[in-house]
Amino acid sequence: MDNMSEVTSFVLTGYFEMEDMKHLYFTVFFLLYITTVFANVLLICVICAERSLHDPMYIFLCNLAVNGMYGSTSLVPSILGQLMSPSHIVSLGCCLAQIYSLHTYVITEFSVLAVMSYDRYIAICYPLHYHIIMSPRKVCVLVVLSWIYPSVAFGIYFIFTAKLTFCRKLIPKIHCMNFELVRLSCFSTYVHSIVGLVATVFYLVPQILMMLFSYVHIFRICLKASKESRAKAAQTCTPHLIAAINFSVGCFFEVIQSRFDSNSLSFESRLFLSLYYLTFPPLLNPLIYGISVHAIRVQAIKYICCKK
After folding, report:
1. Cβ(30)–Cβ(283) under 8 Å?
2. Is residue 306's pLDDT more than 70?
3. Which residues pair with 91 in a beta bridge?
4. Distance between CA atoms of 8 and 246, rounded to whole angstroms?
5. Mind listing the pLDDT tens digit for each residue in 158-207?
6. DSSP letter string, 258-296
7. Which residue of 23, 34, 102, 292 is most buried, as measured by CB atoms within 10 A?
């Protein structure tokens, strides 16, 4: 039984189900992480090095890549370390740091995706005024807000979690999550849960509404446009739509399997649903844009060839 005295370290019980194949899991996560870092660094280097890619769309894409590496680095190295650890114990400080990093990664991802949808809305609906509306100063403000807002907004709520005392130490995951940690508190967390639900609305709903607003207007404009204009709009919006839907579905997987009983699923299925939004979007986003956007694909090939 868990000791009812205050605890300052926790056991990530999910790793006990990975013991038999921990070396295989280690290899898979290591390769995923290396590939993710390489793909995102390549994308960032190509955008920074090529002056023709210094438009707002690519600047926002560069921020998406940086955030992808931030999220992956907050998760995968700790998984690799825990896989090789015999005890799978994590301190309260490390657990809180991971919670803050992963949650700000999620909010920042939605924020950057929302800003990118707004950029596409201006480019398609107001093409003649695009460079006036999306001035360098406004682009800088949007980039800064995409990073500052998640850090401050979640930080205010995070203070409540950091002040809790904990009497149980078993976390049925392979990484720390705010919802799972709060459940281990010594006292009732009903008010904390209500505040968390309200906070989540403020964290994500404005970004989702911005994306919906942008694409509703883009769709309305496309209905009145020529076939050539519709094809061009589809070409410029498709990578962003795929990235946004991919990340949203991954977050939906996590919410469903964490809030509802998923014990009927196999461990591998639960692991996949739990980690999808943290591992695959940072890996797939550079590939999606690298394949879909001709300018990035061409410059990436030139960059690799020049380095060789």
Report:
1. no
2. no
3. 9
4. 36
5. 998 988 889 889 998 899 988 889 889 888 777 887 887 788 888 888 99
6. HHS--TTS-HHHHHHHHHHHHHHHHHHHHHHHHHH-HHH
7. 102
Whether residue 34 contacts residue 244, with contact meaning beta carbons closer than 8 Å, is answered with: no
First vs last C-alpha separation in the chain: 58
Could you give the angle at which helices 22-49 and 294-307 cross, rounded to 10 degrees?
A: 100
Contact of 62 with 43, CB cutoff 8 Å: yes
Report yes or no: 63 and 143 within 8 Å, Cβ to Cβ. Answer: yes
Across residues 114-128, what is the average pLDDT?
93
Q: How far is CA 89 from CA 93, 161, 164, 169, 199, in A?
A: 12, 19, 19, 9, 29
pLDDT, position 3: 44
Q: Extract long-range pairs of 245-248: CB within 8 Å, 24+ residues apart.
A: 246/280, 246/281, 246/284, 246/288, 247/109, 247/110, 247/113, 247/277, 247/281, 248/208
pLDDT-wise least confident of 22-26, 158-162, 242-246, 259-263: 259-263
pTM of the model: 0.90
**Which tokens belong to 145?**
């807000």
